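Cross-check.
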Amino acid sequence: MIGPAEKEDVQQVLPLLLSAIGSIAYSLAGTDDQEEAEQILADFYTSEDNRISYKHVLVDRREGEIAGMLVSYSGDQAELLDLPFVMRPGRELGTRANEKIAVEALAGEFYLDSLAVDERYQGQGIAKALIAAFEQRGIEAGSSKLSLIVEPNNAGAYALYKKMNYIEEGSIEVSGNRYLRMVKYV
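Predicted model, tokenized:
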């Protein structure tokens, strides 16, 4: 069943989030140390007013477990939601202190930041259902444009987005990697 995430979901959501965002985790955390980055992101997840806050997460619960998760927010708030990462005390001491956090979403869009399904539940339509819930959230928020980014070599995700009528609209560099921007008008 798809619904909002809770603070207490952090231990189940965080591994999925990390698998979805890859090296972007280190950019957000401002460090290359995996354990430190995971702790920093866990703290942000349980906080409010940042891009990975539980407040921006939808989850699919199956048999008492988180089967999948999706992070989304309004592009109008993207820079504001990244500010807590930039202003985090101690960031200036990290190995990525000077790395700029790319603003992935544009004003006027409703943005799918990250999506992951636990490997035990893959192939059951969970990603598609989470995307449909994201789209509904975007429509309810008054957005006429939905957006996301995808790695060019992630053929499975790219095919799913195309099947759900997302179209390519340029590319963006995030954490030193190129991503395709995809949009859908609703």
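Residues 2-185 form a domain with the Aminopeptidase fold (CATH 3.40.630.30). The chain has a mean pLDDT of 96. Passed to J.P. for a second look.
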